[in-house]
Amino acid sequence: MKDNEKHRDLYEQYKRLEEWQARKYTAACPLAVYVYQNGQQDPVAWVEDNQPVCAEGSMISVVIEGDQKIFLFYDNAQYGFRYVGNGAGNLDVTIQEFDQAGALARTVAYIALPLSVGQAYTSKGTKSEGGNDLLYDGVEANGR
User: Fold this and answer.
1) Residue 33, phi then psi, degrees to nearest 5
2) Beta partners for 37?
3) Angular region, 3: left φ>0, alpha ψ -120 to 50, beta rest
4) Residue 83, C-beta contacts closer than 8 angstroms, at least 6 positions apart
5) 41: buried, middle or exposed (CB in 10 Å: 19+, 13-18, 0-12)?
6) What's the gap between Cα 94 and its chain centre?
7) Using one digit for the tens of pLDDT, what is the confidence trace for 63-89?
8) In terms of pTM, does the model score above 0.85?
9) DSSP per residue over 10-44, as a string?
10) DSSP collapsed to 3 states, 103-130
11) Whole-number Å distance between alpha carbons of 4 and 143
12) Closest among 68, 74, 72, 63 to 93, alpha carbons compared
């Protein structure tokens, strides 16, 4: 296989990821975000100190745009989130779900949730379960 053909195949794979995602989660506030795949103790993606990290092989992309942490999911697996404040402010979370054609199917937004250093919220669920409720943990949190 020629190098150009190999790179074209790779380009097509990445192009599809850019064009379609099952879900997009956006969190805006001074906070760390941890994403857990169903049944796993360790996060598969996270943002700490505005530095994005994804576990190898995960079907997630993480993008930082200013105060926004954006997580793009390319599968319909169940994920849980933990949002931990590292400053005072209001937490905004927007969840967008897309159909197979890439059209926006549903949007859920949580606006101006109070957040302070160490305060944590969690969310679990997938669109197939009708989930995505954001819950206050009620305890101070230190990291993951």
Assistant:
1) -125, 135
2) 79
3) alpha
4) 27, 29, 31, 32, 33, 91, 93, 115, 120, 121, 122, 123, 134
5) exposed
6) 10
7) 999 999 999 998 888 899 999 999 999
8) no
9) HHHHHHHHHH--SEEEEEESSEEEEEEETT-SS-S
10) CEEEEEEEEEEEECCCEEEEEECCHHHC
11) 44
12) 68
Residue 96's CB is within 10 A of a number of other CB atoms, namely 17
CB of 81 within 8 A of CB of 34?
yes
Amino acid 100 reads Q
Residue 73, both tokens: 């999911």
Q: 51 Cβ partners below 8 Å, 6+ apart? A: 64
Predicted confidence at residue 35, as pLDDT, reads 96
- Alpha-carbon span 101 to 141, nearest angstrom: 39
Token couple for 134: 């954001």
**CA 49 to CA 73: how far, in whole Å?**
21
> Residue 30: how many CA atoms within 13 Å on its side-chain side?
8
Task: Copy the structure tokens of residue 125.
Answer: 């669920």
